[in-house]
Design goal:
- Keywords: Golgi apparatus, Signal.
- InterPro entries: Exostosin (IPR004263), Exostosin_GT47 (IPR040911).
- It is a single-pass type II membrane protein.
- The chain is of the alpha/beta class.
- The chain is built from 15 helices and 14 strands.
- It has 2 domains: 228 residues, no CATH class; 159 residues, 3-Layer(aba) Sandwich (Rossmann fold), CATH 3.40.50.
Length: 457
């Protein structure tokens, strides 16, 4: 039965989600149970799936409430979607209080704030990049070796918290063993997801547990032979010491979400509203000699190359320079295109903020999954211009061809406007991030437990 369902699932999704995604803003969680066709070896039979398919573990305070009391001196809210999702699912209509009826199990641990609290140590208050204390007697403060030890200290402590949480669940509840954790998930809310927060765990400890995360990189494998950015590989380049038995992102299991940001529906700007007087906006910087350069060959080198390229040949009507997030959001609302250069990862929150401000994003993905694309069919290729990192010098020519084609430009803007709602984190936003997470989790539940996925009407 399970094999037949999994074989047919992509076909069912392809037929249903293509039309559903356009109407997702009008869909609501049903107040009634809906009968749903389920394919089995003996043909089609009718089963009644439950709308309440998720059980949220009540974890000890050390994993949630106590972490909330920590006061990191530097902690962007974008890493707090583990807390946001915990609060949401506690009150969601997909939650069941009966674990025997659950198809999925959430293990809430506030890893984002916990990891950041360790990561900022040894630094100037408010500036984690400025290391002022010796991390080891033999290392100079601010040296690459000190940075490496700082990262590993944060990763090691956070990994231990994950290990303890999993041990607690396995010892206190009987539900893990049935599927070796495949119906369980945690939220890994930092840049490299599990590779930041569960670095030291082995496959035997993680089982088949999946994650909700923002990291969808398909190029960083367990043993990368080629760096995912345009520079000559050297042995002394910074490399991630990720787990060797599993990847940071599993596209057939993990659920991708944008990093968190506070936008209300009223903050969304149509690409057709206002004067789009800036042709191309570049609101990021690259400062030589800062701490980031010691550890991030990934995106900051490309930022440097793009900025130098723009200085040598600025596109007419374009702007470059670093501003506050609030100023950047305002500038995005008056720009046609926004360059979303990578940072610590291929992806950046700037991509989704640009979408909400009606600015067509320009990305530099080599191979990267994005939220709600693989299973829910959000067609990023229709409203995002992607340029391979090696081809960044084609930026101006690619841009100019679109600017010279009003029909193509309008098509991209229309597609962007049609999908802006998918990227709102606001509770209750029609077709927003929270709604789509629940939709995708219902698909995961069907794949894991061989039951029909919940229907959203």
């Amino acid at each position: 039965m399970k094999r037949d369902w999994l074989v047919l699932l992509p076909l069912l999704l392809a037929g249903s989600h293509a039309s559903e995604i356009e109407n997702v803003g009008k869909q609501r969680l049903s107040k009634k149970f809906h009968e749903h066709a389920h394919v089995s070896g003996g043909g089609i039979k009718r089963q009644r799936p439950t709308k309440e398919y998720m059980y949220v573990y009540d974890m000890p305070a050390k994993y949630t409430a106590d972490i909330r009391k920590l006061s990191p001196e530097w902690h962007p809210d974008q890493y707090d979607f583990d807390q946001v999702l915990h609060e949401h699912f506690q009150n969601s209509r997909v939650r069941t209080e009966d674990p025997e009826q659950a198809q999925l199990f959430m293990i809430p641990v506030y890893l984002g704030r916990y990891y950041n609290w360790f990561w900022q140590q040894w630094s100037t208050p408010g500036n984690p990049w400025d290391i002022v204390e010796d991390c080891e007697p033999r290392h100079r403060a601010g040296s690459p070796e000190c940075w490496w030890e700082k990262w590993m200290w944060a990763k090691g402590n956070t990994s231990e918290l994950v290990r303890e949480a999993l041990q607690h669940v396995k010892a206190s509840h009987p539900h893990w063993e049935k599927h070796n954790g495949a119906n369980h998930f945690m939220v890994f809310s930092y840049d490299h997801a599990r590779c930041d927060m569960a670095l030291t765990l082995r496959l035997s400890e993680m089982g088949q547990m999946f994650s909700i995360q923002s990291y969808g990189d398909l190029t960083l494998t367990n043993e990368p032979k080629v760096p995912p950015i345009i520079q000559r590989w050297q042995e002394n380049n910074y490399t991630w010491g990720q787990p060797r038995s599993w990847a940071c992102f599993r596209p057939d299991a993990d659920v991708l979400v944008p990093m968190y940001y506070e936008f209300d529906p009223k903050d969304v700007v149509s690409p057709f509203v206002g004067e789009r007087s800036v042709s191309m906006l570049m609101r990021f910087a690259y400062t030589e000699g800062d701490g980031k350069n010691l550890v991030e060959h990934y995106g900051h080198r490309l930022r440097h190359e793009i900025i130098e390229y723009w200085k040598a040949d600025p596109l007419e009507g374009s702007e470059q320079g670093l501003k506050t997030p609030e100023e950047t959001d305002a500038d995005m609302a008056r720009s046609l295109f926004c360059v979303c250069a990578p940072g610590a990862t291929q992806d950046t929150t700037r991509l989704f903020r640009a979408i909400l401000k009606g600015c067509i994003p320009i990305t530099f993905f080599r191979a990267n999954d994005l939220p709600f694309a693989r299973y829910l069919g959000v067609p990023y290729e229709e409203f995002v211009l992607n340029i391979q990192p090696d081809d960044y010098i084609q930026l101006n020519s690619k841009m100019q061809r679109i600017l010279d084609s009003p029909t193509r430009l309008r098509h991209m803007q229309e597609a962007l406007e049609a999908h802006q709602r998918h990227f709102l984190w606001s509770e209750g936003a029609e077709g927003g991030v929270l709604f789509n997470i629940e939709r995708e989790l219902s698909v995961r539940a069907a794949m894991v437990t061989d039951t029909p996925h919940s229907v959203f009407r």
